[in-house]
Structures are given as C-alpha cells and as structure tokens.
Amino acid sequence: MQIESFGEILKQHGVYLGAxxxxxxxxxxxxxxxxxxxxxxxxxxxxxxxVAIAAGMTTAGKPAFALxxxxxxGNAINPVTSMLYIYRMPVILLVSHRGQPxxxxxxxxxxxxxxxxxxxxxxxxxxxxxxxxxFTDEVxxxxxxxxxAAWICRKGTxxxxxxxxxxxxxxxxxxxxxxNQGRFKPTLSREQAIGNILPLLNRGLDAGKAPAVIATxxxxxxxxxxxxxxxxxxxxxxxxxxxxxxxxxxxxGVARARPGRPVVVLDGDGSLLMxxxxxxxxxxxxxxxxxxxxxxxxxxxxxxxxxxxxPAVDFAALAMAAGYRLAETVDxxxxxxxxxxxxxxxxxxxxxxxxxxxxxxxxxxxxRLSPRDAYLRFRAFVxxxxxxxxxxxxxx
Length: 396
Ligand SMILES: Cc1ncc(C[n+]2csc(CCOP(=O)(O)OP(=O)(O)O)c2C)c(N)n1
Prior knowledge:
By secondary structure, this protein is an alpha/beta fold.
C-alpha cells in the first residue's frame, strides 16, 4: 500500500498524531509523518512510553497511534494491559511483524514472530493483519466501539513516500544547572505535601480553567482522591492505575494535544526512574504547558517502602540536562506551594522535586470512581465537553 493512501485513511479518521519506536517496516510512515506539516510524530524512548503518549493524545480528543516493532510489543505489554485495556482507550497500535513464520529473519525475532498476533489478542487488543482493503473499516469500527486495537504490519505492506531529509544537529555539552542547589531533607508526608498544593491543582476548576492533573499509580493517586475527590467533583484529575512510569508520557500526550491547557504530572521517584527516558522526550519536545512534580520519598512506598536509587540521582540536574526549561528541588511545605505556583506561571517544561517522607495513613482507601468513569470524566474535562456523571461508580 502506498504510504500516501494509508496517510489519507488515517486523516479521514482524524488521526494526525502518533508516537513510536521505529521498525524499518515503518520507515515510509515515519518519513511521511515527519514531512507532512499537518502530521505530528514523536520519537519515543520506549514502546511503553509511545503507548502512554498516544493514550494521552487520544484522551485529549486527538486520536493517535503508537507504532513499534513487534519486539517492542514486549516493552509495551504493561501499559497496554493496565492502561489501554482497563480504561478502554481507543488507541491504534501499529506493530511490525518481524520473524513472520516461513520468512527468513534474524534469530532474535523467531519466538516473537510466532506469537505476535496471539500476544496482541491476549493483551486485550482487537487484532488485525494490516490490509489496505480492510483497514479503513476496521479503524472506524474500533473508534466506534472505543477499544484499543492493533494492526500487524507485514514486510512491504507500507511502501513509497518521501525520503527524510538528512539529520542536521548540534549538541551543547555544557548542560544548564538547576536554579537552586543545596542539601535537602524530607519533613512532610506525601499526603501533607499533596494537601499543601491542592489549592493550586483546583484553581479555576469551576470555570473549566484548572490544570489537567495526572497522578501516578499507587498511594499518590489514592491520597489525592481521598483528600477531596470522594464526591467526584475534581473533574480535572486523572488517576493512573497500573501503567507504572507512564504518567509523564501520558501527560506529555495531553499537553501536546491541548497546548492551551496547563498539565501537571504528579510523579513518584520509582515511577520516574522506571521510564527515565521520558525526561529526554519531554526535554526534546519542550511542551510549554507541562509541569512535572516528583514526590520523592526515596522508596517504592506503595509496595512497602523498598528503597529506590533516588538519593543518588539529582532529578533537577537531569531534567535541565535533558532540556527542561526550569528544575528545582524543595523540601518543605510552604516552599513547595510557592515554588509550584511560580512554575505554573513559567514556560514549561518545568520539574519540581519535592522530598517527602515514606509512609501513609493506615486506613487509606481506594478511588471509588471506576477507571472507566475516571477516564470519561477526564476526557470530558480536557476536551471541554460535559460529563454526564459516573456510569459504574457510586460516590460516598
Ligand atoms: C510495572 C509495575 N511494576 C511494579 C508495580 C508495583 N508497584 C506499584 S506502586 C509501586 C511503587 C511506586 O513507587 P513511586 O513511584 O516511588 O511511588 P510511591 O509508592 O513511593 O509513592 C510499585 C513498585 C506496578 N504497579 N507496575
């Protein structure tokens, strides 16, 4: 299939955005995306991140695809099963088929080549072999049904298209330093720290002007919900279940799709470390409306407080080295609130690392808002649409 025809089908379905880690089978598509000014393709650092970015874009009302080599389907299983499937997000996955049975290929593709289709189906995706005749109907159906779907792309299915211009780039080896330096020591708990910034997260909510707030998986989401969303009134919130490490990629997708809306990602140190490559994607793409807050307790607190390597890592310096515009570290409540307020007024991407202690309330509950309702509520908020209330959940 000529890539121009394929691109036209994507456009007919409103798909102008995509993210991925390439396979040579997708060179025509990546070149086409890069050259057509109507289209926006982000180069992700992992396939899981690509899924998260495409999910954020799709949720923000701009349908998107994630493309990957089938070897990278292995890197995407967690976001596919614990995000796309759970929230029923209609993201399009384009997966190449290296190691297709009966075709000679390199040994590393042999097993994945045999199980690609089955694995994709097992991961909860409606799975098709990409065919020019059927693609348009299949995409229409997946969008109508609101389900994630994967198309397995065989060698030569996509062809033609423009050559990408040669890459011309320079690097500056003297990375900018964070704007504050010193020694920091946690004093507040995560719940106290979150409580401190609630007014900033809720500001403008009644007028629909509040930031979109994305909270990482684990106790951070649970505490944020318990603090003031038990009546489901905080429509600007998205609680990640599972998909550890994907809050930043998802936030990047939302920020890219909705450049006029501030986006705040509340991350954990363990989650950020799991997909540290996302710092580079954010630093490279530089979304002006993205504000990244890392609540850092030096531990995987949600699973019992096992230490992470975070004490050895200067996240603010890393963020600046990766291309963020501003990055700072803080360790007390009033400073946290004041600095975040300043970050929200500053052009992003910004990173604020807040040191916190480990531990949480003994009686900490879990969101009663079902993941599906949480998704629909957040989608309505970021697309400025009305939310008709929960379908599956009952507030307290
Ligand atoms: C892929 C994956 N691995 C492990 C887990 C289990 N898990 C859930 S939350 C969590 C800890 C997250 O740590 P951090 O981001 O630092 O947040 P904290 O719990 O400290 O607030 C872990 C390991 C998971 N949900 N997903």
